[in-house]
Specification:
alpha+beta, 14 helices, 529 residues, binds adenosine-5'-diphosphate, rod-shaped, 5-stranded antiparallel β-sheet
Length: 529
């Protein structure tokens, strides 16, 4: 039986009596069984006898091989002696089995690991990748790049999230574009305005200014923004206006004069209704009315000047007429003398009125200038010969210095003669005897011709030079009047020159005197063109 069991279990089978005597052993021939050593001391047998079963791994006393033993008491009828059945399996066999098991396990583990890697890659591609893409897109969005898009093909939650993000980006982009267009339009409006604009918040801090305001106050936008207006635009009237509008929230108006430069500004302040910080609370618009005021002053001065200029000869005439009536007429010599003065004063009155009428005609634009081809050389020579008698009277030397050839110009001949005679007349008047008066004509820059009248006379102080072209402006009133001037000659010259598309100005002549320069554009006469 032991041998048969051994064959079936592929293990050694031993039957041992309670006292340790070996009854049968599959590894021992039947004849040799009685010689086999008593097994009572074997640990597995001892265990089995004590607890019903025992196990041990040790070298076999019989076969010498490392063997795993399993022993157990066989069921017997009660009272019968106990018998132990022991199965011994050589460890080599077990080791082989374990090795096979380990190899299979390793293969399985490898396969599982490989599968896990594949799964991770798949997961990374399908779940983590789109998410990390979205994270980077969100990062770029945050950095201000609104053109980014997420590309997902999946239709799961990640895909939906991607689509939502794309829609959000598109909406954001549309909003940003709309806002930047609005901003650009507003900026263009603000930048192109000639009026200065100042926007303040409720605390009076500067939120916005435009370039016109920067120019008016000679400040830079960077230095203003976020600062309190009264600190950066210090002007008492402006500060009080701002305080009033911020407290009363009603529109205000004021006029201020900036101290350096004397610019005159009209301010219209409107409440904008903002309550919170960084919200427009007041908008101030600054109109530069310096020119308006200047023109107003010129007009006022003009009326005063005209009255004064007319009154002087009139008073004189009235005085002499009264003197004649008071008996002066009875003395023929006195009468002739007085009547001579009256005639002179009436001539002067006439001269002033003629000049005034001439000026007002030119200014109103009712005078049209002809555009005939002009022979400048002949014209200059003719004017010089006209002025020669009065120049000779004061012993002046007249010099003409003309380029050869002179470029052709077009214009109104009689007006041109008027310009030159006025200038030459002044040169003769304001140059003490035996001076030199030079009339020069030469090519100027950019297709222009400069015609100048220089003298060696009393000259014009630098600050008066731009003003001598104003009506009735005279450096020395008494001297001008004494010399028979009306104070309108240069104003007429200026208008005539500008009517010909040119410009006129005065410089100092070296070493003394003045030089009036008339710069005219060189034009092809209409006939030639
Ligand atoms: P006026 O009739 O008084 O000469 P103008 O308009 O011709 O008036 O000239 C204005 C003022 O310019 C003169 O009063 C004079 O003070 C000054 N002025 C004009 N021409 C000369 C000159 N050649 N030299 C010095 N001063 C001049």
């Amino acid at each position: 039986i032991a041998r048969e069991l051994s064959a079936r279990a592929a293990a050694r089978v031993t039957l041992i009596n309670e006292d340790g005597t070996v009854l049968a052993d599959s590894a021992v021939a039947d004849t040799d069984v009685p010689k086999v050593e008593n097994h009572r001391t074997r640990p597995e047998i001892q265990h089995a006898l004590l607890s019903g079963q025992g196990t041990a791994i040790r070298a076999s006393h019989t076969t010498g091989e490392r063997t795993m033993y399993q022993a157990l008491i066989l069921d017997r009828p009660p009272g019968a002696p106990r018998t132990v059945l022991r199965v011994g399996l050589p460890m080599t066999l077990l080791d082989r089995e374990t090795a096979t098991l380990q190899r299979n396990l390793a293969i399985a583990l490898g396969a599982a690991f490989f599968m896990a890697v594949l799964l991770s890659v798949w997961m990374a591609r399908n779940v983590t990748k789109p998410l990390s893409d979205m994270a980077s897109v969100a990062g770029r969005l945050m950095a201000g790049d609104a053109t980014v898009r997420i590309h997902t093909r999946s239709r799961d939650e990640v895909g939906v999230l991607g689509d939502t993000l794309n829609q959000m980006t598109a909406q954001l982009r549309a909003k940003i574009e709309e806002l930047s267009e609005d901003r650009a339009q507003l900026l263009a409006m603000l930048t192109s305005m000639v009026e200065g604009v100042l926007v303040l918040d409720c605390q009076g801090r500067v939120l916005q200014v435009n370039p016109a305001l920067e120019r008016m106050f000679n400040v830079r936008r960077e230095d203003l923004r976020g600062k309190l207006s009264h600190e950066v635009l210090s002007h008492p009237r402006l500060s009080s206006l701002i305080t009033t509008i911020l407290s009363s929230r009603t529109g205000q108006e004021a006029e201020i004069v900036l101290s350096p430069g004397g610019r005159c500004l009209h301010i219209e302040a409107a409440a904008a209704g903002g309550e919170r910080e960084n919200e427009a609370c007041a908008v101030l618009v600054f109109h530069d009315i310096t020119e308006l005021r200047r023109l107003e002053n010129i007009r006022k001065d003009f009326v005063a000047n005209v009255s004064h200029e007319l009154r002087t000869p009139l008073t004189s005439i009235k005085g002499y007429v009264e003197a004649l009536l008071d008996g002066g007429k009875d003395d023929p010599e006195t009468a002739v003398n007085f009547l001579g003065i009256i005639l002179k004063q009436s001539d002067r009155l006439n001269l002033i009125l003629e000049d005034l009428l001439e000026l007002s005609k030119i200014e109103s634009g009712s005078v049209s200038f002809k555009e005939d081809p002009l022979d400048l050389r002949a014209l200059i020579e003719r004017t010089l010969s006209m002025i020669k008698p009065i120049a000779d009277k004061k012993g002046h030397r007249l010099v003409a210095r003309l380029d050869d050839p002179l470029p052709p110009i077009a214009g109104d001949e009689s007006r041109f003669v008027q310009i030159l005679t006025n200038l030459l007349d002044n040169a003769v008047k304001y140059t003490p005897e035996h001076g030199t008066i030079t009339l020069a004509a030469q090519a100027g820059p950019d297709q222009t011709i400069d015609v100048s009248v220089s003298d060696t006379g009393i000259g014009i102080p630098e600050p008066d030079r731009p003003r001598v072209f104003e009506r009735f402006y005279r450096v020395d009133k008494a001297r001008s009047r004494e010399l028979g001037g009306t104070g309108l000659g240069l104003a007429i010259v200026k208008h005539l020159v500008e009517g010909h598309g040119g410009q006129v100005w005065v410089e100092g002549n070296q070493p003394q005197g003045s030089r009036f320069i008339v710069r005219l554009p060189v034009r092809k006469p209409r006939a030639q063109a």
